[in-house]
């Protein structure tokens, strides 16, 4: 089973790019972030014509997450994280697909730091960690995939010294990521590629993609039953070079189930 995550940076504006990539790679499950569309504007019909069922949690202009499944409909198990009934951001969705529990997330950016946006990011991360603790021991494979908006180590960021004041590289945020890993989650890309320079995001400015001045902020975390079946973990970095594409590239794993 190939499970992917991609921050599409606007699902309707990037629809031709999304469809091209789906046709090229035929992933079995896709977690999408930054739909930037309310529920009624999600392009369900076009995506179904491409062979995918979908569940989504939209929001006008901002945020938004979805899970696509090839040849079937994902069975939604949760939308939104527990712990804050007043949270209006559409950032988390969870579904079962052919025996695997897949969660898709879009963690808050948190800039500027310090400030209320950074405080919200830390609270959201704490809620994610609390919920992840209820999933990690599941006997079935579990994958929590998405845009985590964190570079865990210096090797995950081009010129780390330039990011010391950024919310994506803040010590509290990196510590939260490793608290989550300590529950028993495996970072799929680093499990198979511990020492490689791997990025999943390149800014639109300053020719970042051509210079490979990137960040690794999109992650797939696997519980033990999923990690035992992990065979491949890659970034489709060439997609970042397509016309009118997202500033993120798709990231995917293959599980030998």
TrEMBL record:
Cofactors: Mg(2+); Mn(2+)
CC cofactor note: Probably binds two magnesium or manganese ions per subunit.
NCBIfam families xref list: exoDNase_III, xth
Any GO molecular function: endonuclease activity
Protein name: Exodeoxyribonuclease III
Site (Important for catalytic activity): 218
UniProt organism field: Sphingomonas psychrotolerans
GO biological process: DNA repair
Domain Endonuclease/exonuclease/phosphatase, residue spans: 4-248
């Amino acid at each position: 089973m190939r499970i992917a995550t991609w921050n599409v940076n606007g699902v309707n504006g990037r629809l031709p790019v999304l469809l091209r990539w789906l046709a090229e790679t035929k992933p079995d499950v896709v977690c999408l972030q930054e739909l930037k569309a309310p529920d009624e504007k999600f392009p369900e019909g076009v995506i179904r014509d491409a062979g995918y069922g979908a569940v989504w949690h939209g929001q006008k202009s901002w945020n938004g997450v979805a899970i696509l499944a090839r040849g079937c409909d994902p069975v939604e198990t949760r939308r939104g994280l527990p712990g804050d009934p007043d949270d209006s951001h559409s950032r988390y969705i969870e579904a079962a697909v052919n025996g695997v529990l897949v969660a898709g997330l879009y963690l808050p950016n948190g800039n500027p730091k310090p400030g209320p946006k950074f405080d919200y990011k830390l609270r959201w991360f704490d809620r994610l960690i609390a919920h992840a603790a209820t999933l990690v021991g599941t006997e079935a494979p579990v994958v929590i995939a998405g845009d985590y908006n964190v570079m865990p180590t210096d090797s995950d960021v081009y010129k780390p010294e330039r990011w010391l004041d950024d919310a994506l590289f803040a010590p509290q945020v990196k510590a939260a990521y490793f608290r989550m890993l300590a529950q028993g989650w495996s970072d799929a890309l680093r499990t198979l590629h511990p020492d490689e320079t791997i990025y999943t995001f390149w800014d639109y400015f300053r020719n970042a993609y051509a210079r490979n001045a990137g960040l690794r902020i999109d992650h797939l975390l696997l519980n033990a039953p999923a990690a035992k079946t992990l065979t491949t973990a890659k970034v489709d970095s060439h997609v970042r070079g397509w016309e009118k594409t997202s500033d993120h590239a798709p990231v995917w794993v293959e599980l030998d189930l």
